From TrEMBL:
Source organism (scientific name): Nocardia halotolerans
Short name of any one Pfam family annotated for the protein: MarR
Protein name stated in the entry: MarR family winged helix-turn-helix transcriptional regulator
Ranges for domain HTH marR-type: 6-138
Amino acid sequence: MPKATRPDLAAMLVPLGRALTEAERPVLDRHGLTMWAYVVLLGLDEEPVHTQAALAKAIRADKTRIIPVLDDLQQRGLIRREPDPADRRVNLVQLTAAGAHLRDRAQHDIQQQEQQLLADLPTADRNTFLRVLQLLAERTGTAETQA
């Protein structure tokens, strides 16, 4: 067996992911968001209305784990939760304009911070890296659902 010429993908990506998550924390703190709250706000971007169960599945969270997060976001006017008219046992979750605005500001600040990390890369390499990373995230079903 020939010796590997590079580390495994997880060996490279997991530490990078942890470092990026830690770098996001102060940004989210400035916006008054927890990581899970931010993930929920990002998860609500794809469709205008989700059931709580569908949202939990989309963001890969246990549906009972996100209930306190949803409670907080609702109390702050960032989401609306209403019973589904077709099945009153089910709650529908929808992003409010205030929630979308806060999500967009936080995401803008996070991505500006990421640009600093990427700034030393040649433009072609940076663009290729981002394109391939997005493609891999889409293939694995993790695009836009993990913070």
